[in-house]
Design a protein that fits this description.
Elements lengths: L1 H22 L11 E5 L5 E6 L13 E6 L22 E6 L5 E6 L5 E8 L2 E9 L10 E4 L4 E7 L5 E7 L10 E2 L9 E6 L6 E5 L2 E5 L7 E2 L6 E6 L4 E5 L8 E3 L11 E7 L11 E4 L5 E4 L6 E7 L33 H26 L5 H7 L22 H34 L22 H12 L11 H10 L8 H43 L18 E3 L12 H16 L4 E6 L6 H21 L7 E7 L8 E5 L2
Parallel strand pairs: 24-25
Antiparallel strand pairs: 1-2, 2-3, 4-5, 5-6, 6-7, 8-9, 9-10, 10-11, 12-13, 13-14, 14-15, 16-17, 17-18, 19-22, 20-21, 23-26, 24-26
Length: 658
């Protein structure tokens, strides 16, 4: 009996010890391994990895990136595999996502581990940059990548066996900046498992099994209340998830309780533009905030960037770039001096007054150079114009005619009036030209005749035709206008008897011969039209000196029947990761070619003929669409799907330069 009581007490203690862990619900199904969580800033999308999963895209069930969405009620939905180009045929893991959610960093395993940066356009993703990882930073469990600042933080061993945290910055041409130790975070203990939070500013890491947080790069680290059982943590302002430490056995992603989830300070998404793009060889720029924090940003081609600003923070991107006076003449509208006061309202008021002075100066210069007429000059030039120069409604006319806005409004109204007068003149000339060039045909024998305008009985069809001729380009009269002529022919037809079978056969044969002649003439017309169109296009291309139509450089890799490295997902028209790189190279070759490039798409010989032809045409359309997105005009190339009609060489994409 005593042994039985001891057993019951031990079992109760064991169950009580596991109750906190059982209260945390796993996001995924039972028996499916999930790890490497990455959250968006809004907390509504979770990127993660499923190792050794049957439905993975790679060979031998290698890890793939999966996506799970969160609905408005806070429930996580069913996971989906996004496919290529997010996933490849090697091991893939998500590393980070930008604050606006349109950029994603993916770890590519295999021979030489690397990081692919993908950018979303609509619903499609495309690889934009690739960096090979340094030899000391190839452990996917001990590295993280900040997509907003292109910052790589990783743990590497130091003398003595423990690890320290280091930082590198991505540069152009796949290079990295030198490694710098994070002295503010490193200690004599073991630091590892770094993870950037969804705001792109908070860094989470483990120190000897305990979780710490650095809210910004300039701030010291502080301990946080996250259980040590979580080996990886993904944090957003509204939700926090973590991966349990049972690596290789039952890895799963669980939601961390509310009391432990206040890891990321609340912030608002802020979008702005840099005054000057990053310097040569640089991909990022520094944006200082009013509280002394300096953020790295990765702008797009237009200089736009997005960051998360916390309460009370203001960004001044123009103070982080070279002085504007070095690039623009002093006194221009783009002249923005350094901020000399923390009072933003006073700063904006001063800047507004300076802009008004610049506008007044430019208005005086405009009058001096006589770029446009003043309202008084226009009235003197057109004294008989009853409407004056103001075409705005009375309720929208400015009362203060001496202000700069009133002057601009009057100048704009005069410009609109002149434009409308010009359009009326153009329409009048077009009607006169169409009337002079109009040719009218009679129903008799095709001789030229002018329209009969003499008075007579009202002809509804003729009146309708006359009205249409006055509104649009002259057209032939409708068939209803010849109804009397048709009746006359019908009355004159001989009624000697029914037409015999021989006559019917002869008429059918003559009709077939005429139709065949028409078909041949149409075919010849299409060929001649296409030839003339090609000739005009060639002449147009020859007359314009485009840089990409210069003589191809010596040693160009594009030659007769060149096989390209454009690859697709098997049996689909979707490009894989290597296919995007191949098309980028193809676009560069087309720009350097001396004539139109013909791209031929061949499919595997084992496919059915009809299916192979359809697949090759779909792949040809994909290539043409991608080249168009890269800015290559369609007149410089043509893509043809050959199916499997030329099986020699197998499935391939070739380029032919005449």
């Amino acid at each position: 009996m005593a042994d039985y009581l001891k057993f019951c007490l031990a079992l109760a203690g064991l169950l009580c010890g596991y109750l906190p862990l059982a209260a945390q619900t796993s996001l995924g199904p039972n028996g499916v391994r999930e790890r490497d969580p990455v959250l968006t800033a809004a907390g509504d999308v979770l990127y993660f990895t499923r190792p050794d999963y049957t439905w993975n895209q790679g060979a031998d069930d290698l890890p793939d990136v999966w996506i799970r969405h969160r609905d408005r009620n806070g429930r996580w939905q069913r996971a989906i595999n996004p496919g290529s180009p997010i996933n490849s045929f090697g091991p893939d893991r998500p590393l980070g996502v930008s604050v606006e959610g349109d950029r994603l960093a993916v770890y590519r395993g295999g021979g030489t581990p690397s990081i692919d940066l993908l950018e979303r356009s609509g619903r499609n993703w495309a690889v934009t940059d690739t960096w090979s990882l340094p030899p000391e930073a190839r452990d996917p469990d001990n590295l993280t990548f900040n997509v907003n600042s292109l910052t790589l933080v990783y743990g590497a061993p130091r003398a003595g066996g423990s690890r320290d945290l280091y930082v590198r910055y991505a540069e152009t041409d796949g290079n990295w900046s030198p490694a710098w130790p994070l002295a503010a975070l490193n200690s004599d203990q073991d630091e590892g498992n770094p993870r950037f939070a969804a705001d792109g500013r908070t860094l989470l890491f483990r120190r000897s099994g305990r979780w710490f947080r650095q809210a910004d790069r300039q701030l010291p680290a502080e301990a946080i209340a996250v259980a040590s059982q979580f080996m990886q943590v993904a944090a957003a302002p509204t939700v926090v998830v973590g991966m349990t430490d049972e690596v290789g056995k039952d890895e799963r992603i669980e939601a961390i309780p509310k009391s432990d989830s206040e890891l990321v300070p609340p912030a608002a998404l802020h979008a702005a533009s840099l005054g000057v793009p990053p310097g040569p060889g640089e991909l990022t720029a520094t944006v200082p905030l009013n509280n002394g924090v300096r953020l790295r940003v990765y702008p797009d081609r237009l200089g736009r960037y997005a960051i998360l600003l916390r309460e009370g923070e203001i960004d001044f991107p123009d103070s982080a770039v070279p002085p504007i006076e070095a690039l623009r003449p002093p006194g221009s509208l783009a002249n923005i001096g350094p901020v000399s006061t923390p009072n933003r309202q006073a700063y904006l008021r001063e800047q507004l007054e300076a802009r008004q002075e610049e506008l007044d100066r430019l208005d005086a210069l405009r009058r001096e150079l006589a770029f446009t007429r003043t309202p008084a000059e226009v009235a003197e030039f057109r004294p008989n114009d009853p409407g004056g120069t103001d075409t705005l409604p009375p309720e929208l006319r400015p009362a203060d005619t001496d202000s700069t806005r009133a002057k601009y409004a009057q100048a704009l109204s005069e410009l609109e009036r002149m434009k409308e007068e010009f359009r009326q003149q153009q329409r009048s000339r077009a009607r006169e030209r169409d009337a002079a060039e109009a040719v009218y045909f009679t129903a008799g024998g095709g001789e030229l005749a002018s329209p009969d305008l003499s008075p007579g009985p009202v002809d509804t069809a003729g009146l309708r035709t006359s009205i249409r001729r006055g509104l649009y380009t002259p057209q032939l009269e409708p068939l209803t206008g010849y109804r009397g002529w048709e009746n006359e022919l019908r009355n004159d037809r001989s009624n000697a008897g029914q037409v015999g079978r021989d006559e019917i056969a002869r008429l059918d044969a003559e009709y077939a011969r005429q139709m065949e002649a028409i078909r041949v003439l149409r075919s010849q017309l299409r060929v001649e039209t296409r030839r003339q169109s090609d000739t005009l296009a060639d002449r147009s291309l020859a007359s314009h000196q485009f840089t990409h139509r210069a003589v191809a450089p010596v040693g160009s890799s594009l030659s007769m029947a060149t096989r390209l490295s454009v690859t697709f997902v098997p049996n689909t028209a979707y490009l894989d990761s290597g296919g995007y790189t191949g098309i980028d190279r193809l676009a560069e070759h087309i720009r350097n070619a001396r004539s139109t490039v013909e791209i031929r798409v061949h499919t595997a010989a084992a496919l059915d003929g009809l299916a192979a032809q359809r697949l090759s045409e779909e792949r040809a359309a994909t290539i043409a669409q991608r080249l168009g997105e890269l800015g290559v005009p369609s007149v410089y190339f043509r893509v043809i799907g050959y199916g499997n009609n030329q099986p020699e060489g197998g499935e391939r994409v070739e380029a032919i330069v005449p």
